[in-house]
histidine kinase (Variimorphobacter saccharofermentans), 512 residues
Amino acid sequence: MCTFVDYGKRLKAILVSQNIYIQNGVLDIFSKIKSKLKFLNSMRIYLLLAFILLGVVPLSFFSQVLLNTYEENAINNLVAELQNQCNMLSKSPYTTTYLTTGDVPEFDSDIAKIAEIYHGRIIIVNSNLNIVKDTYSLYKGDYLISEEVIQCFNGTNQTYHDRQNHYLKLTYPILQLQDDKAQQESKEVAGVIVMSFSTKNIQSIRDRLEQRVVLFAIALAVIIVVFAIYFSGILTKPLTNVVNSIDRLTEGFMDESVSIKGFNEIEKISDSFNHMINRMQKLENSRQEFVSNVSHELKTPITSIKVLADSLLMQEDTPVELYREFLVDITDEIERENKIINDLLSLVKLDKTSGDMNITSININELLEQILKRLSPIAKKRNIELIYESFRPVIAEVDEVKLSLAISNLIENAIKYNIEDGWVRVSLNADHKYFFIKVSDSGIGIPEDAIDYIFERFYRVDKARSRESGGTGLGLAITKNVIQMHRGAIKVYSKEGEGTTFNVRIPLNYIV
């Protein structure tokens, strides 16, 4: 029997499950919308929008500016012409008489012509604010009391343009003329000319111009859009080719190169991509060769050990001397196997514990002396002279074990790949910030086309000689890794047949 509490728990579980279902549904909807709108993040879309904005928007802006400039200039010209007509009327010899009597046929004729030419209305107001003349004959004899007229009597001309109703209104003073010595106009205002003219003609012309501009803008916008689509396609096509080449590369077709012609930047991308493919191909070949070499190197000592052991087991009453000889050979093979395994383990350990540095302050001079002392027996076997030069005492913060491994690899390589009766010179110097180790030899040198790859893992310059000397192609990779872990740098200078020089630079104080 279920209690009320049980029903409450069930209801709560149902609500929670429904809430989760709704949330998942909303997330699915958003993910679908996002996947459908993914094309908006295309470079071609951005280029298309950029071309449209740079073409259509300025065109619309300048079209509007052109139309507004035409309208403004037309209004200003009309105002200037009307003011000129007002000036002529105000200076007419009939003006004074007309303001008094309002009956001068010549003056009426002039006013009527101006009103007819400009399709407007002219009102003449005397000093008593009485309307002397109204070309519309509506308010003649009445009084005209307005702010514009009053201000004009006070010496302020008014010009008003009603853009919404399309008419222009202006006031102009009629100055009373006096015959004084200079025959100059007095500042006394005898009357006011009020003009009202329609600007629909200007607006009509502006509308027709706007229609033509709009048609021109639409045609030009279509051309711009077509050009933008075409040009954006041209710009993005090389990038699409690069993407397709990368896809082909991921499918395993590493022998294909990319040849893209066009802008310099695109061609540089093509060249860089081809260079990357070549590097990857060489690295892949080196890795495959390394696997083959390591398999061979690991298998050969084991095979030799098995053959030697089987030979001993097959012989009865084997002399002790023969046992000793076979055991020495077995020991040598075991040592060879151990060296290969140690190099592999060292490289793997450096990769996995690159941040695990046991930093201590040590004497670099003593460290180099110990390394040279440990490698001197190898040099003596080939009669190679080891030369050590120290220009000053150097104390630095380093990982002694790792740095000793890196420097030992450099010096050991200089000994192994040297000529008989040659020399190896190791020098140490320092400044206020770094210490410098130089390892030079009189050896066989490195081919120019191999210098860029010697620090890559599994790469060996002279594969036959490396196998004879026990090299695995990992020594320089380990060395570079260790030096970079110390925030240092290594450079190589070599000429085939004349020897090689490695320059190492490491900070005196370890930088975390």
Notes: The chain has twelve helices and twelve strands. Residues 200-250 form the longest helix (51 residues).
